[in-house]
Amino acid sequence: MAPTLPGLHHVTAITADAQANIDFYCNTLGLRLVKLTVNFDDPGSYHLYYGDELGRPGTIMTFFAWPGAYRGTVGTPQVTSTAFAVPAGSIERFWASRLSAYNPRPADRLGERAIHISDPDGMGLDLVEVTDSYGQPWARGPVAVKDAIRGFHGITISEEGYEATARILTDLMAFKAEKSEDNRFRYRASNGDGFASIVDLICVPDAKRGSMSAGVVHHVAFRTPDDAQQGEWRSRIVRAGLNVSPVMDRSYFHSIYYREPGGVLFEIATNNPGFTADEPADQLGTKLRLPKQLEKYRDEIERALPAVKLPQS
């Protein structure tokens, strides 16, 4: 049986201020902090995970916190906007007013009703109305379920030229070309249910080159159900002539990484074992969690990390 890649798993970006990031994504957008941990490759800095009630794949926005980092340059090749799905009618009813301090403006997204804002680090976000009822928002969050974010709608990648990236999406990753307008080309995962399944490519040959720092997406992860299917994807990526990492244990999922031809870092992450692997569902995001290999350094790590005020779980 062919392996599946139903859509996005998570998007990881960089913030210069962990507290401002927590306040915005939890208190303003209404996502749940589902895991407070550290960057496994740089344990002196936080790794923050937000999502729905359980941090299900397709809802997870994550941040590496680099205190005081300068603002990165948005350009090519980068994920230049991350889109969240919200219920039909909720932009006019709720989100436009709630996000008024962030200068919401209509987003150009192939006829969809959407608004665009920038988060406190300057990273581009879209809220897109959908009629599907997918997603299980956090019922105890500050945003009523009828208006709450359902998970991702998709991402927008800006490239100097889009054709080579499009071929990887269609020929390797089983996405299908859906529609286009001007310089925006839409691709959708062909073996999913439509949830968090869209990648838009924007061809901007004259755009400036982006740089990696605060307010910039570090990588985007696509979801696959289990380790066996991830292994098959790894073999296919190798056969396609791309360099791919070994499998890496991220405690809450297993990951492989490769760069698409334009230069954006892609990841394929497993759905298992999930964020309840080391704490019960009702305690997600309430205390610092460390992987087993770092637990013996807990005292040292906690002294190095800045204090943050966590939202009420």
Brief overview:
This protein is an alpha+beta fold and 313 residues long. 16% of the residues lie in helices and 35% in strands.
Give a structural overview.
By secondary structure, this protein is of the alpha+beta class. The protein has one domain: 2,3-Dihydroxybiphenyl 1,2-Dioxygenase, domain 1, CATH 3.10.180. 16% of the residues lie in helices and 35% in strands. It is built from five helices and 16 strands. It has helices at residues 18-28, 90-98, 163-172, 227-239, 298-304; strands at 7-15, 32-39, 42-51, 60-65, 78-87, 105-106, 114-118, 124-130, 151-159, 175-181, 184-189, 198-203, 217-224, 248-249, 253-259, 265-273. The strands form two sheets. An eight-stranded mixed beta sheet has the order 2-3-4-1-13-16-15-14. The longest helix is centred in the C-terminal third of the chain and has 13 residues, at 227-239.
Features:
2,3-Dihydroxybiphenyl 1,2-Dioxygenase, domain 1; eight-stranded mixed sheet; 5 helices; 16 strands
So how many helices?
A: 5
How widely separated are the two ends? 41 Å
Poorly predicted ranges (pLDDT <50, ≥5 residues)? none
Strand-pairing-aware structural class: alpha+beta
Q: In total, how many beta strands?
A: 16
| CATH architecture identity | Roll
Classified by CATH, the class is Alpha Beta
- Following the backbone from N to C, one meets helices and strands in this order, namely EHEEEEHEEEEHEEEEHEEEH
Largest sheet: 8 strands, mixed
CATH topology: 2,3-Dihydroxybiphenyl 1,2-Dioxygenase, domain 1
Radius of gyration: 18 Å
Task: Determine the mean pLDDT.
Answer: 95
CATH homology superfamily: 2,3-Dihydroxybiphenyl 1,2-Dioxygenase, domain 1
Instruction: Please state how the strands of the largest beta sheet are arranged side by side.
Output: 2-3-4-1-13-16-15-14
Shape: globular
Strand content: 35-45%
- Domain count, please report it: 1
Q: What helical percentage do the residues reach?
A: 10-25%
